[in-house]
Amino acid sequence: MFGRPKNRRKPSEARARVPAIDWRRLGLTVGALAAIAAAVSAVSWAFDQPIETVAVTGRFQRVAPVDVERVVKEKVHGAGLLSVDLAAVRHAIHTLTWVDAVSVQRAWPRGLNVLVIEQTAAARWGERGLLNTRGELFDSDEPHIPPELAQLAGPDGKESLVAQRYLATEGRLSQAGLRLTAMRLDARGAWEFDLANGVTVRLGRRQVDERFEKFMNTALKIVTQRGEDIAHVDMRYTNGFAIGWRGNAARAAGRDGGHDA
Questions:
Q1: Sign of the four-CA dihedral 61, 62, 66, 68
Q2: Residue 89's domain spans which residues?
Q3: Are 234 and 215 in contact (CB under 8 A)?
């Protein structure tokens, strides 16, 4: 009889060996990483010094540089040059009235450079409000209103719409030698504007752009020549316009067709 064959393990079934750990190399790696972290921390500490100086620049007419410096120092109190939140500093400066744009940069070793751009007032809004050139109401309670600014008025929330029409209209009129002093949009959606010579031009609610073009093409000449005699020009007519003369005499000019608001 043959003996029972002995069980032999195949090479593939041999137990996997755990690779030997190079403790020396591992220790060197960990030590190098620790040294790098310590160096970074030391450099950060060296550069993250408390902020001591704030340099404010810009062309100032309405904003006081000392107010900007005060706001910045209150915001960065105790912060370092690297850890300071520049976005929060810019936001704090924007809370000052008349500030339009702000740039804040770090100045080594312990300072900040601040550049401020002021708002440009394009027109008045209501009694004490001011609009910028984008039609934004940036100050609703300005005690010192520049007298040369045009007076705009309209329903709440319509500031941008009124400002856009004012800017477009003012540009065309100034080319013709006339100055726009006021523009109004009433609650019904009707438009009218005043000229420096005292003439009020009524455009109404419908076809406002077309009526303004009709004013420029047909009524502008007589308004320019006889503005002191005219109280208002009504462009709300189908094929023409009507003039309201100053004094007791009322004479119509250029009227043809029915009134259309």
A1: negative
A2: 53-118
A3: no
Would you state the pLDDT for residue 247?
80
Q: In angstroms, rounded to a whole number, what is the distance separating the alpha carbons of residues 122 and 100?
A: 13
Cβ–Cβ < 8 Å for 182, 193: yes
Residue 249's pLDDT band, with cuts at 50, 70 and 90, is: very low
pTM higher than the cut 0.85: no
The C-alpha atoms of residue 187 and residue 192 are separated, in whole angstroms, by 12
Helix (H) or strand (E) holding 138: strand 137-139
| Spatial distance between the Cα atoms of 239 and 243, rounded to a whole number of angstroms | 14
Q: Which CATH number does the domain housing residue 92 bear?
A: 3.10.20.310
Both tokens assigned to 191: 């438009």
Distances (CA, A) of 222 to 87, 201, 245, 253: 56, 13, 12, 10
As a whole number, the mean pLDDT across the chain is 85
Give a yes or no: residue 137 inside a domain: no
